[in-house]
Amino acid sequence: MSSIKKINELLKEYFGIPKRQNPLPEPFDTLIATILSQNTNDNNSYKAFNNLKNAYANWDEAAGAKRTAIEKLIRVAGLAPTKSRAIKNLLVDIKEKYGKLSLDFVNKLSIEETISKLTSYDGIGVKTASCVLMFAMNKNICPVDTHVHRTTNRIGLVNEKTPDKTFWKLNKNFPEGIAHTFHTNLILLGREICKPTNPNCAVCPLKKVCKFENKNFEIKGTSSNKRILLLDNIGI
Ligand code: SF4
Asked: Is residue 124 in a domain?
């Protein structure tokens, strides 16, 4: 899909190339951390994750722990009974099936098989699975959160009703090597410019290629004359 490449170039010119964590985070750590992060803030999920890491020497030891012990350790992140069940089940099942607590097995699977396998576990949705694959395993997959869903639909790259449907459409033949840059810059665009209400289309680097019908060039507090000048300046 060449338009993804074009959008990526425009975003790169505006936001730059986002830095990657170096070394990449450990995939299994990332998976557990994302389960803990659901429905809570970063601070509390980080505390819960550290509680687990400090309590057990490794994930093997955590797999052998009682679920209620895990629940106690992660209480600060909320939904502790549900999350502890999901974590315990994931640890035990992966260890039983693959002999070790690692996500190396996904290297033999296609993207579809990998997402399908990971999302078969409670607490892991398409977004979680794809974030782990891209951020921790350097796979060329673009996760779709609320910002990526909104912006890609407004721009006209996809026309889908839900983030998961957007994910599958967007990742069909995704251009090689640009998923991390594209994803990260789209999130910046969604947070800073293409907000859910009143997108600031006047400053948007994509305004000439975006197909959104309800673009907003109103600048709060701008008189109509100034607004006309502004629209002239941006070539609309
Ligand atoms: S032109 Fe407006 S609607 Fe389109 S991506 Fe930019 S901010 Fe969003």
From this structure: yes
pTM of the model: 0.86
Q: Are residues 205 and 126 in the same domain?
A: no
Q: Which of 201, 208, 217 to mutate to test the pocket of ligand 1 (most atoms within 8 A of CB)?
A: 201
CATH code of the domain containing 113: 1.10.340.30
**Does residue 129 surpass a pLDDT of 90?**
yes
Q: Which of 136, 156, 184 is the last residue of a domain?
A: 136
The residue out of 136, 161, 192 marking a domain boundary is 136
- What's the CA gap between 181 and 36, in Å, rounded? 25
CA dihedral 193, 174, 2, 194 (to 10 degrees): -10
Q: Which residues line ligand 1 (CB under 6 A)?
A: 151, 154-155, 193-194, 199-201, 204, 206-207, 210, 212, 215
Count up the domains in the chain and report the number.
2
Domain that holds residue 217: 201-233
Q: Is residue 132 part of a domain?
A: yes
DSSP string for 205-230? TTTTT---TT-----TT--HHHHHHH
Residue 213 Cα to ligand 1 midpoint, Å, equals 10
What are the structure tokens assigned to 197, written together?
A: 């209400």
What's the average model confidence in pLDDT over 178-183? 97
How confident is residue 235, by pLDDT bands cut at 50, 70 and 90? very low
Residue 15 CB neighbour total at 10 angstroms: 18
